[in-house]
Amino acid sequence: MPRANHKVASHKRRKKVLKMASGYWGARSNVYTIAKHHVEKGLQYAYRDRKAKKRTFRRLWIVRINAAARVNGTTYSKLINNLNKKGVDINRKILASLAVENPKAFSEIVKFVTD
Questions:
Q1: Of 43, 53, 70, 79, whose CB has the highest number of CB atoms within 10 Å?
Q2: Where are the chain's structural domains?
Q3: pTM above 0.70, yes or no
Q4: C-alpha angle with apex 87: 75 to 77, nearest 5 degrees?
Q5: Predicted confidence band at 78 (pLDDT cuts at 50, 70, 90)?
């Protein structure tokens, strides 16, 4: 009986890894054993940085809100506290975009919650 090599499956697996490694520098893009390690590491970084991206954007939004709040005579922490006390349910992403794109609307929000 002939020996089975599983050629189709292994070839597909190697092809998939090499396709993911296309664009890598040097042997990382065309030597399977090296590409496999670098693709795996790249996927680890991608997973980690999808989580870090959320933290980074939240920090950016807070900085933008704080800057706009200070222009309007208050601070970030006082503004958020007053928003919560008044029951205004608006997230930081929207507040930051208002602060950058529509400062008048942001000023109105600040006036409403500080009164």
A1: 79
A2: 8-114
A3: yes
A4: 15
A5: very high
